[in-house]
Every structure is written in structure tokens, then in C-alpha cells.
Amino acid sequence: MSKVKWGVLSTANIGVKRVIPAIIAGRRGVVAAVASRDAERAAGVAARFGVARSYGSYEALLNDPEIEAIYNPLPNHLHVEWTVRALDAGKHVLCEKPIALNAAQAQAIVAARDRSGMRVIEAFMVRFHPQWHRIRTLVQSGRIGTVRVIQSTFAFTMLDPDNVRNRADMGGGALYDVGCYPIVTARYVFGTDPDRAIALVDRDPQLGIDGVTSGLLAFPGGGQLVFSSALQLASFQRVVILGSEGRIEVPFPFTPPKDHGCRIIIDSGKSLDGSSAVFEDLAPVDQYVLQCDLAAAVFRNETTQEFPIEDAIANMRAIDALYRSAASGRWEPC
User: Fold this and answer.
1) Each residue of 56-68: pLDDT tens digit?
2) Is the pLDDT of residue 291 over 80?
3) Around 181, how many Cα atoms within 13 Å sit in the side-chain half-sphere?
4) DSSP designation for 37
5) Which residues participate in catalysis according to the annotation?
6) How many C-beta neighbours within 10 Å does residue 38 have?
7) Which of 65, 93, 168, 239 is the most exposed place for a label (fewest CB within 10 A)?
């Protein structure tokens, strides 16, 4: 079977370090071109990975008739513009999260998808990792009873003022960058969307971004997500799923290295010293390879798209509600 020909829109770190290598390592795609507004940078990345073509503008990449799919890792404030332009140019799109800066803005992508007939996927690689498939299976089977609370933390330190994560004008901030992961995984586990949210934001006075954001999302039926996200704390990530008959703990929930196996801890809670816990170990995988191969299959109409762009908009509605709550000081509807 022929491989999907990808074009990469910019030389962003996530593309160079994770996604370009994943497309190359996968079975379903080939990187055919790289674009940057700096032609020299584009040529350098193309040479590094043996990519045939490079372009000194994003428009030139979209005009390449051989390119079937675009990977869009541009700064957050450019996601909608260039995803829409790619769709209108007849290209499928894998766009980094968050898909937009708010749910209303993301509707432009829906319109572009509908008029172009092309596919667009939000790049939440975690949902392609087998550990999350297994976690959802355990929850749905009733292994820990009725799930009522999910506790999540995703934090690391990023203090460089020039980094896009610290640029308020580019859609930087903890909630956009890492807080979206606790939200999307809680929605995945609960199988539904939250209906209200409340948040506490610690905004950096110099950078203007939320350096630390914590929130509480209420789900229909009594489910709760309690989470913290940070760009200004020591690196840490953990998810604990609490049910009426036990808990599931995920020590490395969001960014396990491709050579690092994952462990799921399942504990009935019958012993507080942890002796009642059992462990499931999963072999190492590259979740970016899984994401890119699945995206290629969706683009070729070989499989259904489990998470359409409407799912991305649902995630944005929760983020929107949290930001509104931080400003209003009260619960806000999602």
C-alpha cells in the first residue's frame, strides 16, 4: 500500500523531536516536504531527515500538489488560520492541541472541513497509547466500581520568556499547554463531557500567562475531575482514578518515552499500605507513531475517525469555562 505524503508546517520542536521521526518510523506515511518562514531552517530540517523538498513559506507547501496531509505544530494562535487554509487547499490535517484558542474560533475549522470534504484530527497522542485503552476497558468493566473522582497533575518548568508557552500573544499558558491533557483523558474515561467548571489561576505578572492553573470539572452523574497544570513547578505527572471499589493509578500518563514501559496500578483499597495493589505492565510504544499511522488510515478512509473535530471543540468548551471561572470567581457552564 502507498504511504501518505505528509508536509510539515514549520520547524517547531514537537515536529522535529517527535512527529517527523514518528512518521518516518511508522508504516503508513512519508515526510515529503517541510516548510518554514525561514528557508534556511526548512532546508536544514529537511536535510537532517532526508526529506526531499523544503519551502521558505507555508503557502508554498500548501500549493504542493503531491502533499496529501499537513501536520500543523504552529503556535496556538495560528492553529485555526493554517488548518483552515490547509483544508481549503485540499489537504487533510493533523493539528496540534489545542485546536483553537476558544470553542467559537474552532467553528471555522468545522466549516472548512465540511466544505472541503477533507479530514482534520486534533493531535492528542495520549488517546492512541495502549495504556489509556486498557484503563478505559478496566473502568467500563467495573473493575473499580463506579468512578466518581479523577485526580490529575501535569507540571513542568518552563521559564524562558521567549518560549511560545510563555507568550500570551501566542496562546501560551499552563491550561492550554498541559491542562488540556487532564481534561481530555477525564472525558475519555467518563465517556461524556463536563457540564460546569471552576478554576483558580496563578498568572505570572511579567509574562501574562497562567503559570499554574488548577480546576474542578463536574460531569453528569456525579463524576469529578480535580486537576493542576503548571509551567512553573517541578516536573511531575500522575493520574489517579477513584472508584467505589478501588482505584487505578497511572504513574506516567501523558508523555512516556517511547523506550519506557508503562505500569497501571490497580488497588482495591483494602490495605492502606499498598499490599492490595496489583500491577499491569505494558510494553514500550511510541504513541506518536501510533497517532500518525492511525491518522493516515483515517485520511485514506480505511478506518473511522473516533474523535472528530467536534470532540476537540468539546474540550475547548471546558477550557473556555475554566478561564471564565478564573475571571468571575464562580462556577461556569461548559
Assistant:
1) 999 999 999 999 9
2) yes
3) 21
4) S
5) 97
6) 13
7) 65
